[in-house]
Write a structure and sequence with these properties.
Helices cover about 30% and strands about 25% of the residues.
Length: about 220
C-alpha cells in the first residue's frame, strides 16, 4: 500500500460571492521512500497541494490518506497533533526565529512533545549532525549564511523523525552552490535515511534529483 494516497481531491476558495477553483479531482499516489518533485507555473496550486498534504489546509472534497489515516476527515486539533508526529516542513525563506539560536530553532517542534530535556537534546544534536551544523548550534540566524539557515530549517524538519518531508521551493532563495548542497542533503535524507520527500520546485535541476517528476498546470496533475 502507498504511504500517501490523494483521491478525488478538489480545492475551491470562496472570495466574496465568487468561487475560485484551484484544482479538481486530483489523484496522487506516493510510495514509502519515494522522492517526488512537483513542478508547474506560478499560481498552478503546487503550494496549495503541499499544504493540503501537510494538513495545513483542508480540501473542499476528496481524501488524503497518509499511512492509512484520512487526514481530510480530521478536526483542527487532530490535524495539529498529526502534523507534529508525521510532517517535517521545509520553507523557501527558512522561517527561523531570529531571537533563537540554531539549536533552539531546531528544538522548537519537540517542545510540543512529551520528550524530556535530555531526550530533546539527543534529537537536536543528531539532527544538527545530519545537516553538518554541529559547530553552529549556538549561532543565531543572522550569523549564518543562507545555505546554513536552510540547513537549520532542514534539521528542524527532521528532528522529530517525521513520516513525510514536504519542501516548498527549498532552494528558491539560494545561490547555485548552496542550492546544490541542499539538494544533495535532501537526496541523502532520502537514500540513507529512507525519508519520503515531496518537493515543490521551479528548477528542473532540482527536480532531476527526485525519483519522479509530476506537473500541475491549470488544475491538472500529470507525470
Amino acid at each position: 500500500m502507498a504511504l500517501l494516497e490523494v483521491r478525488n481531491l478538489s480545492k475551491v476558495y470562496n472570495r466574496d460571492s465568487q468561487q475560485i477553483p484551484v484544482f479538481e479531482d486530483i489523484d496522487l499516489s506516493i510510495e514509502s521512500g519515494e522522492f517526488l518533485a512537483l513542478m508547474g507555473p506560478s499560481g498552478s496550486g503546487k503550494t496549495t497541494l503541499l499544504n493540503l498534504i501537510a494538513g495545513l489546509d483542508t480540501p473542499t472534497t476528496g481524501e488524503i490518506v497518509v499511512g492509512g489515516e484520512n487526514i481530510a476527515a480530521m478536526s483542527r486539533r487532530q490535524l495539529a497533533a498529526w502534523r507534529s508526529r508525521h510532517v517535517g516542513f521545509i520553507f523557501q525563506l527558512y522561517n527561523l526565529l531570529p531571537v533563537l539560536t540554531a539549536y533552539q530553532n531546531v528544538e522548537l517542534p519537540l517542545l510540543l512533545t512529551s520528550l524530556n530535556k535530555r531526550e530533546r537534546r539527543d534529537h537536536v544534536t543528531t539532527a544538527l549532525g545530519v545537516v553538518g551544523l554541529t559547530d553552529r548550534a549556538d549561532h543565531f540566524p543572522r550569523q549564518l549564511s543562507g545555505g546554513q539557515e536552510q540547513r537549520v530549517g532542514i534539521a528542524r524538519a527532521i528532528v522529530s523523525d517525521p513520516t513525510l518531508i514536504l519542501a516548498d521551493e527549498p532552494t528558491g532563495d539560494l545561490d547555485a552552490t548552496s542550492a546544490d548542497e541542499i539538494l544533495t542533503l535532501l537526496q541523502r535524507l532520502n537514500e540513507e535515511y529512507l525519508k519520503t520527500i515531496v518537493m515543490v520546485t521551479h528548477d528542473q535541476r532540482a527536480a532531476d534529483r527526485g525519483h519522479a517528476v509530476m506537473h500541475l498546470d491549470k488544475g491538472v496533475l500529470t507525470r
